[in-house]
Write a structure and sequence with these properties.
Blueprint lengths: L1 E6 L3 E2 L9 E2 L10 E2 L8 E7 L2 H8 L7 E8 L4 H9 L2 E2 L2 E2 L4 E5 L20 E8 L6 H8 L4 E9 L2 E2 L8 E3 L1
Parallel strand pairs: 2-3, 5-11
Antiparallel strand pairs: 1-5, 1-13, 4-5, 6-10, 6-11, 7-8, 9-10, 11-12
């Protein structure tokens, strides 16, 4: 079984409850499925869940280099120089990243409002980047953006391999 979930902001990427925080079980009532990869509590978007161990490993393991595409709202002006650095790979504290596909994009028209809204500063512009990576290090996209001077305000995973969010609203899921 394969389930695609649009993980909302501030949801822990686990089924077991810790305190009052929302967890995956609050959205997916299916027993025996597990996330193939993770999304941080403050990230949103596509999470693939499966009950097949081999498939879970193939999706989550960086050695299989399954592409993941993210939309990042960043603080600052997105410059070609910053995008080139992302495309070349950036140095992080745990070593260099692989080259990424990166381009500036407009805010998606289909995008749902985030609750709570992001911090907006009237004197600091923001922009959007579409970033495709083949790794999956801890908070990698956020760290990559920060390394090129564009801290993430909002991060949404749009695609994992051939699976996309399509028309899933936050908290909705479907079988793939």
């Amino acid at each position: 079984m394969l389930i695609l979930l649009n993980k909302p902001y501030d949801v822990l990427c686990q089924f077991s409850r810790e305190g009052e925080r929302a967890v995956l079980a609050d959205f997916v009532p299916v027993k025996g499925v597990y996330p193939a990869g993770r999304l941080d509590r403050d990230s949103e978007g596509l999470l693939v869940l499966t009950d097949e161990g081999k498939l879970q490993a193939r999706i989550a393991d960086p050695k299989h280099k399954l592409e993941k595409t993210y939309l990042a709202q960043v603080e600052g002006v997105v410059t070609e120089a910053a995008l080139e650095r992302l495309r070349a790979g950036v140095e992080l504290n745990d070593g260099p990243t692989l080259p990424a596909r990166a381009k500036a994009v407009e805010e998606p028209v289909w995008l749902w409002p985030r609750v709570p809204p992001i911090r907006v500063r009237k004197t600091v512009p923001d922009g959007w980047i579409e970033l495709t990576i083949r790794e999956g290090r801890n908070r990698q996209v956020r760290r990559m953006c920060a390394a090129v001077g564009l801290p993430c305000l909002r991060l949404i995973r749009w695609r994992v391999g051939d699976w996309t969010l399509d028309d899933l609203a936050p908290g909705e899921w479907r079988q793939a």
